Amino acid sequence: MQIKLSFLGAAHNVTGSRFLLEANNIRLLVDCGLYQERKLQYRNWEPFSFPPSSLDAVLLTHAHVDHCGLIPKLVREGFRGRIYCTPATSEIAQIILLDAAHLQEEDAEFKRRRHERENRKGPFPEIPLYTTDDARASFPLFTPVNYQEVVPVGEGVRATFYDAGHVLGSSMIKITVSQQGENRTLLFSGDVGRWDKPILRDPSVFKEIDYAVIESTYGDRIHQEPADIGESLAEIVNSTWRAGGNIIVPSFALQRSQEILFHMNELLLDNRIPHLMVFLDSPMAINVTEVFKRHSELFDKEMSQLIRQRKSPFDFPGLKMVQTADESKALNHISGTIMIIAGSGMCTGGRVKHHLVTNITRPDSTILFVGYQAVGTLGRSIVDGAKRVRILGQHYPVRARIAQIHGFSSHADRDELLRWITSLRSAPRRVFVVHGESKAVKQFGRFLRANTGWKISMPEYGAEAFLE
Length: 468
Ligand SMILES: [Zn+2]
Description:
The protein has 468 residues and is of the alpha/beta class.
């Protein structure tokens, strides 16, 4: 048996997922993600370590930009094969790639002007990594496949997608390689979701696998869970309502925004909060929510029941989708308590900045954080208790209530990762731990080895493994 697996990204770091599988003269790329860590972004500009035209197919686990964000570059540089993924991933990835391309174009223009003004040169060229045209050129290659459907990707190589329970359409991918009457199975975990989350089904589990590549984003941590997300949310909505202010929720477009709507819908149905207006003020989140509506076949039991009873969280009385910038500005003139869910999730851009400007100085308003805030972002400094913050070039005192609800994470933590991988009935030949900061990779690798006695590898960036 001759299979070569190369670790070209998400190796001792969390973004830029990219794994090259070579067997039977076939070359497959599992994920083609963008590096997002500042110190690793230079890798986005480096040439691919293989000619993109030599690649037979891309298998995409899900639509997060750290898994799909380099596809337009791959296509511009010659890739012409198919990009296999689930129908929902295909639709969401196209929304996300267009947005990423827009950001690249804006960024390049902004840097060009600044460098011109300051008469200096930056470390990267002042051109976008790829354009919206590059992103669009990749769309015809997307080839939707359903969960559980066996996809022949080449001579003696087939792939099957399974629900990962991470975001809508997310997958774990099993690849079976056949050589001289023998089979080997490789399982790529993608991002492992969690059990009992709203809307989505639980992560798929497997009984038998030869090789597994497992993520470890939270491999060194246990999630801090609130007693009840609904309870915390109800308290925040009710107290802000009594104070007469607004609730501003900086949120990611994919999954998090839909989960907030799910919880708000539930609280409204149970009459635990007053009937306030809820505005989803993000064209990207609105487009993603449309994909959710089109793919109700992916919902878990509870969510399917809500849809059957016509109690959809994407369609409740008081929910308004805000498309244009003018409509968004008009929200400032509404009196009485409203909730505005807007991007970006860490307040680094998007419409949420305008809503922060009008609400952060109001003691009766609440800024509610529902996601991870990376160091160096505006969201992080607000969460960390900054007394004054700079938004859109102006300084503002922070007088609003700052609230945070934990428990929304869509990544399995250390114990959930262990639960997922130990559903295997027998030891795999080897497990590769990837997609985590170096510390998380090492800690989870040791933890997994101690708990199972299995062969565990923690491949470095660029490492190659020859599988038998
Ligand atoms: Zn993800």
